[in-house]
Amino acid sequence: PTSQQQQTHQIQVELFHLKKSIIENCLFGVDINPNSCEITKLRLWIELLKYSYYLFDDQGENTNALETLPNIDINIKCGNSLISYFDLKQSLTHYPNIKSRIQNYKQMVSDYKKGLFDDKTKLSTQIQELFSAFKSFCFKDKFAKEIKAFQNKCDTYRKLYGNYLAKDDKELSLFITQNPFPKYDLTFEGDEKILQEANQSFLEIRKTYDSLYNLSSNNPFEWRFAFPEVLDSEGNFLGFDCVIGNPPYIRIQGLDRATSKQYQKTFSTASQNYDIYVLFVEQCVKLLAPKAKIAFIMPHKWLNSLFGVGLRELAKDKISKIISFGHYQIFDASTYTALQWFEKESREVKFIQAPQEIESSQEMSEFLTQLTPSDFFIFPTNSLSSSPWYFGGDLSQNLFSKVTSHTPLKEIFSKMFQGIATSKDSVYFLYDCQEGETTTKGYSQELECNVEIENDLLKPLLMGDSFHRYDTPSTELRVLFPYYQGEDSKGNAKMYLYDESTLKERFPKGYTYLKKCEKVLRARENGRLQDDDMWWRYIYPKNQLLFDKEKLLIPYACRKSQFILDTQGRFYINTKIHGLIRNESFENLDYRFLLAVLNSELNWWYMTQVASVMRGGYYTYTPAYMQDFSIPNLSPKEQKPFIKLVDQILKAKEQNPKANTQDLEKEIDSLVYTLYNLTEDEIKIIENRGWL
């Protein structure tokens, strides 16, 4: 620009100072990944650079120099935002000169941002020293008892052994000083027993020190005094006005044991097999100012899953709005998310779900921008509890009540179990098998060739993609099963592993095959069986007595209910299938009647509401999601109409696996609707796959 009066220049100046003020005073960020922190700093710096403007001298001439950018890096910090050792409510008022210290802290941070310093490194060091002083004050308060107990341990050790071992420890030498007259002088050589006791005692002291003083090993983030902008003049934490985030989605299985235990101690939401995004909600609720909000994009599975019970209990009076994306995947991952808002106190929750027809980001953007308040369902939060939440109006609530008010599956079925876990399917599973009179030939993926094994060492195997609803099960797969059924000392059935001599004698072909695979079998799970005499065993031999029983089978992931009936208990299954065995108390319920209800549209609709959804619209049929669906306990006579239709379907499928049985299945659906007393409007929800 040639003049300060040019409108474009004035707009540029105004935008720069507005963005600068927002970035300096309103935006604060924390991430455990240092690279993410650096990228964020760079992104904010570039945003300001875009609006930086040229400076003019006193004569109104353009100097061709740009306005200096502030030091905004101090607002973006690295640390584990879930781990903090100091309570946000911990008072600092009893610390010496607290008001002047807080004022000094605020001023130094402000000077750093504005560049008001001669030596940036020196100012940064001073800020860090003051921050460390606050931590030291809080540390002595919070861990006063632990510090005293630790010092007592050190004093006891010093009286007994002097500074033996401690003199060479840089940290513990400060706590265990020299004692000229210890009870046991171990300077040179001592009694072996006393030496062992001294070593053990020192190790315990070292462990106590590490747990107490090495808090930084967990990379904690101390919200209590990390940002002076949210502290008042006495150092009290005021909180943030808004917390925005996309928390990580990591199941508990993805955490190391120590971190998981730390979270379970700290967070009430760390329940069941939780995902850590629920912990971020709990943490951020603590960080809010009285009338502030949280706005997260994260999975909505917690609304009705088992692991969500802790967050539902916490958020039942804090959740304020949910915009679910339904089937649409915002991120390129098998994760289904929603925009979710939380407040300190909320009297109602607004809910809406995106239409199933949305298939592109542009369509989703249009849906979001066109939303109006009248589009949302509104529910009072006092109707919520820690039980699963289903949002869809009174009609849907009534529907859920109907499908869960009878006898739940967890009572009807005594066992809902997963299939065989071999830890090396490429060895134990054989494909394209041809069964002879005494032996079977099949393809081994491990050896990449056909092998021949005795029939009595093999079992028919079904995998997750082996069947569809109402199929008569059949398979060309076999699983090598090196176990036999016997009895324990009390006469109860028990599975035993064949010993090596028996394998050699009774199953020479099978044993020869296993020997060829011995190296890989021993190497399973990082060499767990390297020195094991029973190297051919399954590492996790579970549910082995259940496969030979009559049972229903269902694949782990389905796009529609795919239950089948294994009448003779002939088939073994892999881990991608669950088996359901009826409780003896419910022998009056025919398996075919249960098959009819579980393959109905009603059950499929229920599963789409409660189960985890995967890429491609598949839902996970696990006991945790199936168990609360309920079935009326009918008499044998009342079950006959269902059984008659199922028999017709099974007969048609047996004659032709591709037979079209949709009309018969619709008749079953009609019977099921009547059985559950569904209204026409409720049936419309079922058949239109209404989403809650």
Summarize the structure.
This protein has 24 helices and 27 strands. It is an alpha+beta fold and 692 residues long. It has four domains: 1-78, no CATH class; 144-218, no CATH class; 239-391, Vaccinia Virus protein VP39 (Rossmann fold, 3-Layer(aba) Sandwich); 414-687, no CATH class.
Strand-helix topology:
Blueprint: H1 7-25, E1 29-31, H2 34-50, E2 54-56, E3 62-66, E4 76-78, H3 98-114, H4 120-142, H5 144-161, H6 192-213, H7 223-226, E5 240-245, H8 257-266, H9 277-287, E6 288-299, H10 309-315, E7 319-324, E8 337-343, E9 348-353, H11 361-369, E10 377-380, H12 393-403, E11 407-408, H13 409-412, E12 413-418, H14 425-428, E13 429-435, E14 439-444, E15 449-454, E16 458-462, E17 478-480, E18 483-487, E19 493-497, H15 500-506, H16 508-516, H17 518-522, H18 524-527, E20 551-555, E21 557-558, E22 564-566, E23 572-573, E24 577-582, H19 591-598, H20 601-610, E25 613-614, E26 618-620, H21 623-626, E27 630-631, H22 636-655, H23 662-675, H24 680-687
Parallel strand pairs: 1-4, 5-6, 7-9, 16-23
Antiparallel strand pairs: 2-3, 6-8, 7-8, 9-10, 11-27, 12-24, 13-14, 13-17, 14-15, 16-17, 18-19, 20-22, 20-24, 21-26, 25-26
